[in-house]
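Here is one chain, start to finish.
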Amino acid sequence: MIKKLFSLIRFALIGLVWSWLFIVCANFLMFALWNFNLLSARSWLTIDVFWESGGIIKGGKDYLFLSMLALLPVLWILGWRYFNRVSYKDILLYPLNAYNRYIIKKYGHDSSRIVLKNIKSSQKIIEDIKNELAAIKPEKSVEVQNIRQQINQVISEEIKKD
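Its structure:
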């Protein structure tokens, strides 16, 4: 129950913030391009008078204006939907992640690092190198083996005497 309440509060909060931001940006864009204020009744009355007096859509600029007016609600809903899917953690940690990417880009491209997913392949290479070294070792001469056997016999006899 509480989880649903928090999700509803989150949904409403994101809706309020997104709606305010969208209205400000859309109003600025419409006013800059066509001198049309979305929040002004006078601008809407101008369109109504134009249409009621038999106004004709003539050029591409008029079609662009009407398509922009028609797309505003669609963009508003899509933006709200998008920002509902973004997690708070990603939004709050964005500055730290951006700084981390910057530092890695600046200092980390030349560093030697251990990639954990490749450890098994490197262990396999080390085992192959050990096997190659064992194959390269020279054979022990017969004289050295005889001397070692004699020393082992003397040591074992001394141990038996004690």
